[in-house]
Fold:
Amino acid sequence: MGKEKVIVFDTTLRDGEQSPGASMNVEEKLMVARQLEKLGVDVIEAGFPIASEGDFAGVKLVADEIRGCQVAGLARANRTDIDRAWEALRAGADPRIHTFIATSPIHMKYKLQMEPDAVLEQAVEAVKYAAGLTSNIEFSAEDATRSEIDFLVRIFTAVIEAGARTINIPDTVGYTVPKEYYSMIEEIRRRLPHGGDGVIISVHCHNDLGLATANSIAAIEAGARQVECTINGIGERAGNASLEELVMAMRTRPDSFNCTTGIVTTQIYPASRLVSQVTGIRVQPNKAIVGANAFAHESGIHQDGVLKNKLTYEIMTPESVGLTQNSLVMGKHSGRHAFQEKIGDLGYELKPDQVEKAFVVFKALADKKKEIFDEDIDALIADEIIRIPHYYKLNFVSINSGTVAMPSATLEIENEGEIKHGAEFGDGAVDAVFKTIKKLTGTGSRLLTYEVKSITGGADALGEVTVRIREEGITVMGQGAHTCVVVASARAYMNALNKLEYKKRNRPRVTV
Structure:
């Protein structure tokens, strides 16, 4: 008997995007969606259409363009949300309406201020209404793991009769543990009409206790056949179940699972890099599967073992997740065709004008650096291409810094066609740059974190700066790269301001 398929429902563009500072514009959403299509996910949850005009536009663009997988949109259990979701999704290849309502006593009492019977009635009415638009309906019981099982069985039975074909049992706040979750999924499945035959049981786990992947695996073992997850495990608070961890666990341990996925695992690493670049959220070095240290060996004993036989300390190969050796493959003599092939290998799909713009910057960088690495190309694309729209543009930076004179910075900034010049003193060159930027842009943002690292080795290495800023209750991250760390810092702050302005103009956002 063949292995059963587990449906991979990727919510990087919806739940993942709700990470602080991770908001994407419509072009970024489409870029990530195309990579998810290459990756082979079954469902892309593209956003929450009712949340904002920007989210609606992003969901619509993804639904209109993606043809290799289903595209879903989230909607609360009411007609207004469902209509808005369907308006964005209707041109999709196989659009899915994903509607939800909270079912835990604490959510029903304090958030919804509704009695259980009223919640059930509203859920059924919403699913029936959605069923008049499409047969592809998913219903989620928000905060299911803190809900009463008897009530969950009642509401799931009712929405299935109303037309839901997928029922989601989410661990919304990352509260459950594997043994408990297994028992919950097993009992609900057993008590559904006909043992749940004809209905997909889905799970959506958060990582507040660091158990999202373990809980999702327990649910699969209990009979769940859809997992909702994100690239790099990004998401609200501590994040979501990590797609790469779930997929590679099933692939690496086929002896422990009677199921598999349709994921093209060699596209995992390109997807990880792209999401990291688009969101500005770095992957921690010790992150499973895609972290910088995931296939690194420093211990002498480990190195000796790996040299003799990789299986001594590697349970999967780097190549199986799309990771290749980081060697010199590009330089100042490389042509457009080679450059285009390279950015394609790295997971980017750029328009011809974007390729040309990136190529010009690449050639300029190649004249400065002897070696061009994949990370260099990631950085220049992130800095020059992905971060749009550019409300603020940095034209030049001039630094005066020495052992005697107080550091100062002179900048020229363009704000939607208006050129502004200014200079400020600071405690250091970077401080002077940031003060000048704040003066010229009039921002009241507060710098929360500042991080700088060398992307590659050598004296001519690119420096990559990541900043996190906050203004008006909005937190964003910005990235910038340059061979001069001060210029990289200026670019990072400007990048953050552009993202901040984008979020201000496209105000969200209902949190789920």
Q: What stands out?
A: Residues 387-505 form a domain with the Double Stranded RNA Binding Domain fold (CATH 3.30.160.270).
